[in-house]
Amino acid sequence: MEKQAKLADDPEAPLPIRHIPSQMGEILEDHHATANSVFGEVAEDGPNYHNVGWLGTVALMMKTQIGLGVLSIPSVFHTLGLVPGVTLLCVVSGIAMWTSYIVGVFKLKHPQVYGIDDAYWIFVAGSGILGISISLNAVSGHGTCTAAFVAISAVISFAFASIRTLGKITWVAWLGLVCIIVAVFTVVVSVGIQDRPASAPQDEPWKADYKIISSPSFAEAIAAVSSLIFACSATPAYFSIVAEMRDPRLFTRSLLVSQIAANALYLVVGIVTYYYCGSYVASPALGSAGPLIKRISYGIALPGLVASTTIFLHLPSKYIFVRILRRSEHLTSNTFIHWCTWLSCTFGATLVSYIIASGIPVFNNLVSLIGALLGAFLAYQPTGCMWLYDNWKFRTDRTLTWTLMACWSVFIIVIGTFMTVAGTYGAIVGIIESLQASGGSKPWTCVDNSI
Predict the structure, then answer these.
(1) Global confidence as pTM
(2) Residue 287 domain-assigned (yes or no)
(3) pLDDT by residue (tens digit) across 284-312?
(4) Domain of 335: which CATH number?
(5) What is the pLDDT of residues 17-56, one digit of tens each?
(6) Number of domains within the chain
(7) Do 350 and 212 contact (CB within 8 A), yes or no?
(8) Domain range for residue 389?
């Protein structure tokens, strides 16, 4: 009893550990499930923060990836060329698999760590709000001012993001995942059966002008790679997701399923859409098959975009919420302070995301900027440091495996630093060019952003 009381008074204290059989390569440790290092004891009348199963984790992981990222893949292939685009997508996805695995390993060894991702996901939520506004514009035929649609998108996202636990958001993730997959495959099938893209010349012979290898400028190429990083950089979210799993040891199982499925979808959608559309591919990709299919696909995808933005707003809000109320009884109880703090966090995150979506209203440029400025910085460098932090003590007995992993971790840190600097430069160049272009999108505009 005395030991349990000490643990309750000090959430940073290490939790009891018992050894168990391994599952899918996970760590052979089981940290105490009820005295969670992040949320503490769960009150009977409070929210259950430990109610996400491994299949629910798959849905959350896939929804943090498949939504906004997949919509930019065909455009990336157009910039880089088909072969370099596919190759780089596989490389970036492979790095994402390793960095995500390290998050799961590190979280099990250090259960008190909750997240490093608040700023990143607020920016990503901004792109989600922008995506919803594009969808509303497409479905309604630009029924009202785009600035109004952005505000409506923010309100909808705030409402869903205020659901307090990931366990209850799981159903939103499943619904959104199905909708976005159906939407993108509607476009894929449509571009495959049409004789030419709707935006291609209609009164002359036409052949798909896809490129096996393209010749982009440095800024264009590095911005395209940043978009791939954005599509594959759900890694920072996994700290928060594993914190609410019923059995964190099943993290790797969920990761393998979600990562393989997401990468397969990216390849199919990217290759087929770009192959049939060539230079007339749209970004977001849902606009590639003409006005009618565009309206249909955006209508189907709308719940998926809302689901993505819900998760993107929920994660940073939960991070701030936990930081404010950690070591307090209000964290897990339905008190007035609990609700005021939680809704203030979700409202604040939504407000910042709304400003980002309105201030950078070009989907491609916003995706590239987020992937470069925050995606690589939070998904690459920290995971390399995590491996070194946990394994540097074994350097005196180094083996070939240890040496290779150490070199790989250093490489991840270096390449992440390079992409942060170079990718941000490329994204900023793209934003400036878009703002200066005749008819280009402007901040807080009423112009239709779905064209």
Answers:
(1) 0.81
(2) yes
(3) 778 788 788 888 988 998 998 899 899 98
(4) 1.10.4160.10
(5) 333 333 333 434 444 433 366 776 666 667 777 788 888 9
(6) 1
(7) no
(8) 50-199+216-436
